[in-house]
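Contributing: when you submit paired examples, paste them exactly as shown. First protein:
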Amino acid sequence: MSALKDKLVADFPKFRDEIAALVKEHGDVKISEVTISQAYGGMRGVNGLVCDTSEVPPDKGLIIRGIPIGDLTEKSPEEVFWLLLTGELPTKAQVKDLSDDLNSRAKVPDYVWRVLEAMPKDSHPMAMFDTAILVMEKESKFRLNYDLGMKKSDYWVWTLEDALDIIAKLPEIAAGVYRLRFGKGPRIPFDPSIDWSGNYVKMLGLGDPGGKFSECMKLYLVLHSDHESGNVSAHATFCVNSALSDLYYSLSAGLNGLAGPLHGLANQECLGWVLETKKIFGGVPTEKQLHDFAWETLNSGKVVPGYGHAVLRITDPRFMAFLDWGKKNIPEDETFQLVARVFDVVPEVLKQVQKIKDPWPNVDAGSGALLYHFGLTEFPYYTVLFSVSRALGVCAQAVVARAMGWPLERPKSVTTKWLKGKAS
C-alpha cells in the first residue's frame, strides 16, 4: 500500500465521523437564503456546496487546506495534490513515494494515440485532450470493482486509484496533443527520472534554458490546481461523480465545462489584449499612454481583460505570484513588462468607474505572458494547460466526496410561475 493510501486510510474515518456528528447535531441550521435574482443569476453567492480542499474568501483569495496559495509557490504539484487529499504537506519521503507511484502509472495506452491521430487535423486541442481521457474509461478500476460488487466504504479507494492513474498520464497526453495538433514532430518519451511538471515541459519539446520553464510550469500547475467547488469545472466534475460515474467520465465532464469561454479562455484573451496593445504602441507604452488607452477601451464599451473577479475583491494572490516570479526571472521581456505596467495603471482607472466592484487583476491577467515568453504561443492550447492543473483539485475533491459518502447531488428546481407566486 502506498504512503498516500496509508495516510488516507488512517484519516478519512475520523473526518467522516466528524461530519456525521455535525449533521446529526446541527443538521437543521440554515447556511444560506436564496433570492429570486440569485436563482436567475447562476446561484452566485448561494451557500449550497461543501468543499474541504480549498476556499476562496473575497478578501483573501485562494486558501488550500488552510494555507494561503501565496505560501505554496515553492511547492511542487505532487506536494499540493497530497495536501489537497490529506490536509497536510508531505515529508520528502512521502513526496518521493507519490512521485514513484505516479511514474509507475504514466504510460499512456497506444490506442489513445490511434484515436487522436484519427481525429480531424484541425480539431480543438481541448477536444483532443478531453477525448483522450474519455477514451481511457475502459481502464477505470472504480467501474470494474463497482461491477464486481464492492462495498460503499471502498468507493474512495478505487476513485483514488483512478485519480492516480489519470493524473499520472496527463503530462504525456497534454504534451502529445500539443505536438500532434501543432505539427511539432514525434512525441517525446516520458522520463521517469524527473518529476511530473518537469516531464510536461520536456515532452512539450520547447526547450528549457536554465530550467526556468520547468520552474514556471511548476508554479503554474500549483496556482491553478484548485479553486473550491463552485466553479464550472469543479462543480461539473463533482455533480457527475456524485452519480457514481467514474473519474474518467466525471473529469471529462468537468473539462468540457472548463473549455467554455466564460471559464477557461480568460488567460488567452488577456494575453491577446496585451499583445494588441503592444502592437498599437510599437512596444511598451508609457503610463500616460496606457492610462488614456484604458479609458479609450472602457469608453468603447469593452473591458480590460483579466481585471475583476466573480468572488475576489482584492488583487488575486495568484497574479501576484506570477508577477513576482516574472520580475525575478524575465524582467527584460517586453510582454511581461507591459503586464506589470497595466497592473500599475489600470486599477486606478477602474476605481473611477462606479459599476466596477473589483478593479484588481485576477490570475489570468499575468499567466499568459509567462507562457508566451517560453515559446508556448498557440493560444487555443492554453486551456489544456489549465486542465492539467485543475485535474489535481477536482480529482482530490472526488476522492474526498466518495470517502465521506456524500449522496447524489439533486437540487430542486422551480418554475417562473412559482417564483411569481412567491413574489406576489
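Second protein:
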Amino acid sequence: MAKKKIRFEEGSGNVFADLGLKDSDELFARAQIGFCVHKIVSDKKLKQKDIGAVLGIAQSDVSHLMNGHYSRFTTDKLLDFLKRLDRKVTIRIAQHKVGEPYQEISLAS
C-alpha cells in the first residue's frame, strides 16, 4: 500500500496571524503572558478560590484563565497577575531579524 503524502504549510509562529485574525500580535502576546501565569499558578497547585485571592479576581475569572481564555484579560491585567505572583517582568527591545518572531516571551525558573 502506497503512503499518502501529507500536505502541510509551515506556520509563522503566531497562530493568530496564520488564522488571519485582527490584532494577531496583541492576541499572541496575551496568550504567551497568560500561559506564563497559568504555568505559575498550576505549579503552585492552588485551588481556584485561592488563585482568585492571590490574583484579586473572581473564581469565574480564574476558571477562564485556567481554561486558556486569555483574550478575556488585557495585557496590563495579565502583567498585574505576574506582579501579584511575585514575578519580575523584563522587556527587551531589539532589532527584528528576518525569520524571527516579532515578540518573544519566556518564563524563567
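If you have annotations for the second protein, write them as plain sentences, like these:
The chain is about 45% helix and 0% strand.
The first helix runs from residue 15 to 18.
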